[in-house]
Amino acid sequence: MALIAYKCPRYKVTVVDINPDRIAKWNSDTLPIYEPGLDEVVKAARGRNLFFSTDIEDGIRSSEIIFVSVNTPTKTFGTGAGMAADLQYWEKTARQIRDCADSPKIIVEKSTLPVKTAQAMQRILTAGDYKNRFEVLSNPEFLAEGTAISDLEHPDRVLIGSAETPGGLKARDELVEIYANWVPQARILTTSIWSSELSKLVSNAFLAQKISSINSISALCEKTDANVAEVAKAVGMDSRLGDKFLNASVGFGGSCFKKDILNLVYLCRYYGLDEVADYWEGVVRINEYQQERFVINMLSNMFNTLAGKKICLLGFAFKANTGDTRESPAIHISRRLVEERARLVLTDPQALENARTDLKDLTGRIDYIDDPYAASSGCDAIAVITEWQAYKALDFEKIYGSMTKPAFIFDGRNILDHERLFKIGFNVFPIGKPA
Ligand code: UGA
């Protein structure tokens, strides 16, 4: 919404949230999330045509277009627990819009939702004694964290799903007009609502599938002395496959991939498509396997015991350039290492505060240290979890000098110079390459 405000000074954008602390942070000099380039965009538009407020009712009443971006986590209870999307926040929002709107509105689904949610929302919005016309559009977001601003400025595509009715098409055109302020028309794709909702789930499922595919091959490379980076390069040069998203890793994290795939799996099962559901569920299973495999590799290479050993995790965020730790492989890996009775030291340039919350039940068993040199000092092993560029430039001779010997490095992102580390004296274990 900040970027829309920034690019379209003619529109007034009001962001409302029930959480007053969060809104206060959006109105302050320290934004509640770390995202490169976001500060500048917010500062340029805030107070001009971008406003942050807790007055939700006023936000609804005073706007013609309402983007709903409430969270839709995986259900933790009842039917579909662990798989289906929990739509309670979305539904409450729809009811609130219906109850306090006093003029026609266009409602835009921004949250990722299962197919046919828009239909349900349309019914809620028009149930009972409603006075206004509501048009529901689907406009899924494809930005990735860490590159959000450039993804928004130069999107591969903007997708807008609408009903094929005159009202639906008119609403769709209004939304197209907003994006057309900076996105070329050819990149603005319009479809039916269901295609749009489904495309979001499928895009994430395909992206995650690419990572799970290369991660599964990394396990085979370790057994056969092939090098997964060389395989990925050779495979990715086929333009039908493409060279992106082929970096073998400790596994994918983030708030979206797992949730969206499980959602897709649930939908397939609901429609009796068990084979299709099993196929996509495999992507999540390989991801869990990859995280666990990383821990088992550490254990077996460190003489089958981690008890009392001190291990430093370099990075905790689910990817570089964000402080977000949701579904980060670091969470599973930390828990498993503590289970093996290792002593953990966590370091990350942006994510330590979130890490503390994620692992608060393990207080006293983990140290959190900002400086990577201080964090790795006295450790038996380092495990690279997040691909922060800064880690490449660390002085590993100095680090080696301060560590307990034999010193181990497990590079879960293949970002370091493994040959050089080996020459320094480290026992080096990359992903998908011979040790
Ligand atoms: C992902 C999608 O890339 C976005 O298009 C989508 O809009 C977003 O989910 C969403 O649904 O909101 P995001 O989760 O922010 O974006 O980050 P990604 O860059 O996709 O990375 C996801 C995970 O995959 C990270 O843990 C990353 O380290 C890992 N990854 C990525 C790999 O392990 N290997 C790769 O080659 C690429």
Mind explaining what this structure looks like?
Pathway: Nucleotide-sugar biosynthesis; UDP-alpha-D-glucuronate biosynthesis; UDP-alpha-D-glucuronate from UDP-alpha-D-glucose: step 1/1. It is an enzyme of class 1 (oxidoreductase). It holds the Pfam family UDPG_MGDP_dh_N. With 435 residues, the chain is an alpha/beta fold. Among the domains are: 1-54, no CATH class; 302-430, Rossmann fold (3-Layer(aba) Sandwich), CATH 3.40.50.720. Helix content is 43%, strand content 13%. It has 17 helices and 13 strands. The strands form four sheets. A six-stranded parallel β-sheet has the order 10-9-8-11-12-13, sandwiched between helices. Strand 4 (105-109), helix 6 (117-125) and strand 5 (134-138) form a beta-alpha-beta unit. Helix 9 packs across helix 11, helix 11 runs antiparallel to helix 12 (274-301) and helix 12 (274-301) packs across helix 13. It is globular, with a radius of gyration of 24 Å.
CATH superfamily of the domain at 302-430: NAD(P)-binding Rossmann-like Domain
Ions, cofactors, ligands: which are bound?
uridine-5'-diphosphate-glucuronic acid
Q: Which blocks of ≥5 consecutive residues have pLDDT under 50?
A: none
CATH architecture of the domain at 302-430: 3-Layer(aba) Sandwich
Annotated CATH topology of the domain at 302-430:
Rossmann fold
Enzyme class: oxidoreductase
Active site: 256 (nucleophile)
Domain UDP-glucose/GDP-mannose dehydrogenase C-terminal: 312-418
Pathway: Nucleotide-sugar biosynthesis; UDP-alpha-D-glucuronate biosynthesis; UDP-alpha-D-glucuronate from UDP-alpha-D-glucose: step 1/1
